[in-house]
Amino acid sequence: MENLDWKNLSFGYIKTDYNIRCFYKDGKWGELIVSDSEYIDIHIAATALHYGQEAFEGLKAYMGKDGRIRLFRWEENARRLAYSAEGIKMEAFPVEKFREAVFRIVQLNRRFIPPYGTGATLYIRPLLLGSGAEVGVRPSAEYVFIVFVTPVGPYFKGGIRPVDMLICRDYDRAAPKGTGTFKVGGNYAASLRAGMDAKEKGYASTIFLDAKEKKYIDECGPANFFGIRDNTYVTPKSESILKSITNMSLIELAQNLGIKTERRQIPVEELAEFSEAGACGTAAVISPIGKIFDPERNITYEYCRDGNPGPVTLKLYNKLTAIQFGDADDEFGWISVVE
Ligand code: PLP
Ligand code: COI
Predict the structure, then answer these.
(1) Which of 285, 288, 301, 312 has CB 3.0 to 4.6 Å from 271, enough for a Cys bridge?
(2) pLDDT tens sequence across 71-90
(3) What is the pLDDT of residues 314-331, one digit of tens each?
(4) Candidates 28, 60, 89, 183; catalytic one
């Protein structure tokens, strides 16, 4: 692709050449079907449309300096999709078929993988939805798995430049024993009021608190939260957040770099104790947080006063992205090369 402005890509949709679909019918998954259409035909009574039977994933393909295409921990996404499927009573998509679909879709859309050095990547979006007709509230007997790709820049504008966030007490994203740990569309619908409110007030994202007590940090819109204090990486333990694969990886990287790690409840007031704070996820990568405003207490927690990410955040960002783009050794066995 010659006419894409790779360095300035937003996190948006750009049409690519192909997507893949696979149908579950009569108790079994069919073959993978390659399509060049951006549309699907769906029954008007499909459970995805009425009752939110839909789950998705997000992972990326990275172009290396050596011209090799790398995927980061795709098995974790395959497993989490199966976990989400079970969470809303859908038929799981087999891990091996997920692998085949993801590798093939990257190969087929090779010309859309942003060049090394642009900071952009090819975002891979697998989704699974209930396509069978039901009017009563029950699981569908038929499912569709789809995977499409689109080239993207960083989710939060500015990449590694700090962004500001707003603590939200007016809306919840997910309840403690609800669907928060599943990557299902309904959680994102539930997050929209808070997200739009934060954007209208000039913030990059909302920070959700635990829905029950509103005492502890949950997560940052579409990313997990972390704070740094006393050379320790602290990240929330909660029953209502997504288990971020990026966060899991940062915990391992931190330990490897001699940084202590804690996964535990983080009371809102502890924001005053952190020297750095950030949001992490596939789309967000690592976004340092510049300021967090708590409207109820009228307090602003400030990090990155000089406009730059803190030293621990930067160290983690550099190490993670070096592994993903193939600039550092894959010492944890996280990378799969797409030939
Ligand atoms: N939290 C939410 C709500 C998300 O949508 C995402 C994105 O997938 C994350 C956290 C980060 O998860 P991961 O690192 O697996 O992409
Ligand atoms: C991701 O990080 O892959 C996400 O799914 C976040 C989002 C854009 C919903």
Answers:
(1) 301
(2) 999 999 999 999 999 999 99
(3) 999 999 999 999 999 999
(4) 183
With the CA atoms of 138, 139, 140 and 146 taken in that order, what torsion angle do they form, in degrees rounded to the nearest 10?
140
Alpha-carbon distances of 303 from 86, 114, 219, 267, 300, rounded to whole Å? 39, 32, 18, 17, 10
326 lines ligand 2 (CB under 6 A): no
Among 79-88, 151-160, 199-208, 290-299, which stretch is predicted with the lowest mean pLDDT? 151-160
Q: Which residue ranges make up each domain of the chain? A: 6-152, 163-323
Return the sign of the alpha-carbon dihedral for residues 287, 293, 294, 296: negative
CATH code of the domain made up of 163-323: 3.20.10.10
Query: Which of 72, 80, 220, 242 has most ligand 1 atoms within 8 Å of its beta carbon, as the pocket-test mutant?
Result: 242
CATH code that applies to domain 6-152? 3.30.470.10
Place of tokens 């669907």: 179
Q: Are 133 and 117 in contact (CB under 8 A)?
A: no
Measuring CA to CA, how many Å separate 84 from each of 62, 92, 305, 306? 25, 8, 39, 41
Classified as helix, coil or strand, 95 is helix
Predicted local distance difference test score (pLDDT) of residue 59: 98
Cβ(290) to ligand 1 under 6 A?
no
Q: DSSP per residue over 130-173, as a string?
A: E-SB-SSSS--S-EEEEEEEEEE--SSTTTTS-EEEEEE-S--S
Domain 6-152 and domain 163-323 have a common topology: no
For the Cβ of 321 lying below 6 angstroms from any atom of ligand 1, the answer is no
Amino acid at 338: V
